[in-house]
Design brief:
By secondary structure, the chain is mostly helical. The chain is built from 19 helices and two strands. Helix 5 runs antiparallel to helix 6 and helix 14 runs antiparallel to helix 15.
Length: 430
């Protein structure tokens, strides 16, 4: 251990003389009292988080985390079960970062199927599964997991929390239902959101869900304040020495970038282009730092910045068409959009690509010489957008192609538009 400690410095977790964890070894030795197993798991997680971005680092992280989880899988004491849950949550996140969503879901389900998983760990797994299902357009399954989360805090566990904490948990459950219903929020959900507005002690992920709800229904001042609260909360979590019990879209990193990106898009809608650019630029820097410059989520934020430049140009009466086009096309490249001759089946983020191409098409209608290209963009979006409600930007593009003046289209569609949840890779609109 001495040579490994010298090589890795503080990154090598040496809790005390009872612990043996060498990141270069092919296995992890747990020679610790049960009460210290969770501390050892936390140090393993911290080490894997320190690894560089990319597949080699992800593979190394999986090796280390799986080694620890395998040892703890049959443990019965509460500390071991908590340690096992932490490792499985982080394994799910690593697999999701590699776009291996099936493996991510399996690790979360392992927690649910393990022997007496701790309440908080089970809740975190249900939250992550609900969000993952929404990301994969499995909305009903997402609602099922959201319902299971709400039921988790029933009679069996009510003794485990105070009445104040139980109220906060109910708000967390409503927030999770918001994500599952965001495509088409119900009237009952409206009432539940309003009744939970005063709850303070909820997670950044829950605050972000409330922010997005108010964003999608057009309550922009409320949404703006909630986005800021989610940014502050998630930033505090990121700066804390405590390892969060969360996975995939619910991690502080995902929430922080999601809240900044959401706020940036809201600011575009209200015409505060300068501050929108500040927020989206910050989100771009953060996502490049966390996931690398070539990650598809970088493309998502570039698409948002392209929309910013497009709307700013319209508001100012200036011609920024080439800047807008360049930004949208860079975004589409990073999102690995299929050619216009393909239908994009089986690819990630089809609805975000469709939104981006619809917005690009509306920008290019300012150039009559490119109407054939615009028509192809419209046809592609029309083909792939097979959801129950029409995409507002596609409706606007069709109106422009039909000869309607831009001023009339803008007037008729004022306050109608879409925004992107970068965490869930979904497009939402009223």
């Amino acid at each position: 251990m001495a040579s490994s400690a010298r090589r890795f410095g503080r990154l090598v977790p040496i809790i005390n003389s009872h612990v043996s964890f060498n990141p270069m070894a092919r296995s992890v030795s747990f020679l610790v009292p049960p009460a210290e197993e969770e501390a050892t798991a936390i140090e393993m997680i911290k080490y894997t988080k320190s690894l560089k971005i990319g597949e080699p680092a992800y593979s190394e992280a999986i090796r280390i985390l799986e080694s620890g989880a395998s040892f703890l899988s049959s443990a019965k004491n509460p500390s071991s079960q908590m340690a096992f849950g932490r490792l499985e949550l982080n394994l799910a996140t690593v697999h999701a970062n590699m776009s291996n969503f099936e493996a991510a879901a399996e690790h979360l389900k392992l927690i649910l199927n393990s022997r007496s998983p701790p309440l908080l760990v089970k809740g975190a797994a249900l939250e992550a599964l609900a969000a993952l299902c929404v990301q994969l357009h499995q909305d009903q399954e997402g609602m099922d997991y959201a319902t299971a989360f709400a039921e988790l805090w029933g009679d069996e566990y009510v003794h485990a929390v105070t009445s104040e904490s139980l109220q906060d948990v109910k708000s967390e459950a409503i927030a999770l239902r918001i994500l599952a219903e965001m495509v088409n929020p119900s009237e009952s959900l409206h009432a539940e959101v309003l009744s939970s507005a005063d709850v303070q002690n909820i997670s950044g992920a829950a605050v972000l869900a409330f922010a997005e709800f108010h964003h999608v229904v057009g309550n922009f001042p409320v949404a703006k304040n909630l986005y800021k609260k989610a940014i502050t909360s998630s930033k505090q979590d990121l700066e804390s020495s405590v390892i969060s019990l969360s996975a995939i879209a619910m991690t502080p990193e995902a929430v922080h970038i999601g809240a900044i990106t959401g706020l940036g898009q809201l600011l575009i809608s209200v015409g505060d282009f300068e501050e929108a650019e500040v927020q989206l630029t910050e989100a771009l820097k953060d996502i490049e730092k966390i996931k690398g410059e070539k990650h598809p989520h970088v493309g998502v934020i570039l698409a948002c910045i392209g929309h910013l430049y497009q709307q700013r140009g319209i508001a100012r009466g200036s011609n920024e068409i080439f800047l807008v086009e360049g930004m949208y096309k860079s975004a589409l490249d990073l999102m690995k959009a299929s050619p216009l001759e393909s239908d994009n089946k089986g690819r990630r983020m089809t609805d975000i690509v469709a939104l981006t191409r619809a917005r690009l098409g509306t920008a290019l209608t300012a150039m009559p010489s490119r109407y054939n290209e615009v028509q192809k963009l419209k046809d592609w979006v029309d083909t792939v957008w097979n959801f129950s409600r029409p995409l507002p930007e596609l409706v606007q593009l069709k109106q422009l192609l039909a000869g309607k003046k831009q001023e009339e289209v803008l007037k008729d569609n004022r306050g109608i538009g879409s925004f992107i949840d970068i965490r869930l890779e979904r497009v939402f609109f009223k």
